């Protein structure tokens, strides 16, 4: 009887681990990227100098390389509930300063330089 409960518990743990890995394997549709460009503007900005690169990986990849890694939306919106996305990062920037974010465009300041970030979708057209 005790072995049966241990096997059920082990199976449940393995299923939860598999569910946690599943979203990263879901890749459908066209990829999204965050792109950045230095700009001179008087637009409101969010100062991201002291932000964590671990908390904002798409933002900092775009700032350092000009474009972040790809993010694919999963089928029927399942992936968004389990993974971090560039949409989450833009939402966090909007929370800090609503005037610095306009739709898919955000203005940030990093070490005194102002950048225009854009959330873009790359299509095969």
Structure description:
It contains four helices and five strands, in the order H-E-E-H-H-H-E-E-E. It has 125 residues and is α+β, with helices and mostly antiparallel strands. Strands 1, 2, 3, 4 and 5 form a five-stranded mixed sheet that branches. The longest helix is centred in the first third of the chain and has 24 residues, at 2-25. The N and C termini lie far apart (60 Å).
Uncertain residue segments:
none
How many helices? The count is 4
- Which structural class matches the secondary elements? alpha+beta
For the sheet with most strands, the description reads: 5 strands, mixed
H/E series: HEEHHHEEE
State mean pLDDT (0 to 100 scale): 84
Strand content: 15-25%
Q: Label the overall shape.
A: elongated
Report the end-to-end length measured between terminal Cα atoms.
60 Å
Task: Please tally the β strands and state the result.
Answer: 5
Secondary structure topology:
Layout: H1 2-25, E1 32-38, E2 46-47, H2 57-65, H3 78-82, H4 86-96, E3 101-102, E4 105-110, E5 113-121
Parallel strand pairs: 2-4
Antiparallel strand pairs: 1-5, 3-4, 4-5
């Amino acid at each position: 009887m005790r072995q049966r409960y241990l096997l059920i518990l082990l199976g449940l743990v393995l299923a939860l681990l598999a569910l946690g890995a599943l979203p990263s394997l879901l890749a459908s549709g066209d990829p999204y990227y965050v792109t950045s460009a230095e700009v001179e503007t008087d637009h409101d900005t969010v100062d991201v100098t002291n932000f964590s690169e671990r908390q904002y990986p798409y933002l900092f990849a775009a700032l350092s390389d000009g474009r972040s890694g790809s993010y694919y939306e999963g089928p029927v919106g399942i992936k968004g509930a389990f993974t971090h996305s560039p949409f989450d990062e833009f939402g966090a920037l909007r929370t800090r300063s609503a005037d610095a974010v306009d739709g898919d465009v955000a203005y940030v300041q990093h070490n005194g330089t102002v950048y225009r970030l854009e959330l873009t979708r790359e299509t095969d057209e």
